[in-house]
Fold this protein.
Amino acid sequence: MGERSGGEGDVETEQQPGAVPVQRGPEPALTSELPIPTPLLRHRLAAHAETLRPYDLVTVPLVAGLGAVLAGPGGGVVPDRVVPAMVNSLVAWSAGLYAADYLTRHDDIVTKPHRPIPSGRLPGTHARNLAVLGTVATVVVTAAVNWHGLLFIAAAVLAQAAYARRLKDAGLWGDLAIGLSAWTFALLTAATFTAPWPPPATWPPALALGLQGTFSNTLLALGDLETDRAVGCRTLPVRVGPRRTVATMTACAALAYALAALTPGITGHPPTTLYVTLLTTAVLLAATCLLLARTAPHGLARATELHLYERVALPGALLALADGTPLALTLTLTVAPACVLALTPRAMLRD
């Protein structure tokens, strides 16, 4: 609460006989605005950052850029379309994160009471309004560029809503809904910024990233096994146990990297040195994550951290395939997210 203040200058008061004069200093000037409560503002901004997961958000432009570049004329860079696709994807992803936290807020009260909305650090109405605002902005921009992209946005929204309402309790179906809506449809929507429809060259990378996203959600569910079981949430680990969950994750990773390895032949883009380097790095990171996941719950925290780097390496490798993509652009879109990950507190990476 701010303190009310009077006018500026010394104030004279009537003295009673025999009273000792009291000296008063200048009073602060009246202002029309109350001071912003800095601690509250700081906590509110931290809550927004926790909701948006910057370490996750920075990967989105890389995926969108990949879709827009692969779909471009000759599979090259069209700056006046690629950059808007990347920005649009950031807005859409942010809206999705706010919506996801808002729609699952009742479950989080029990399973994750420390999250921004259940803890009261972020009002649910704020998250809802920002989700609506971001969604409207994304729809308007996409419609102005190419209305075909709205079909993929609609599919993503429906998948996210289905996950929040029903599919979270449906085992692997819920993980697939998240993987496809988050990464596959993000890439395909961005592709409509540079082509009427996503061309065949975009589908193998889109499916590979969708499977990687499925891997991601399953890994997180494995970490939440005990809390999900306690509240009766029927995720894949709750249904089949850790061992079969890791086997399912292994299958997702194998399919994802098989598609990534076949992409040069399918798309007609010869493999580059950077593609081979980044793809090999991603495969090694995925294998390490799976080995650590077998030691659950002890190795899950480290597996989650390494997987975030894997999620940068795979789309970076696929972007390196595109004809005419400047090496500096590929390195920037790949190295920048990795730097953000390296600078993010480890405790935040594990949430």
Summary: Residues 1-16, 22-34 have pLDDT under 50 and may be disordered. The radius of gyration is 25 Å.
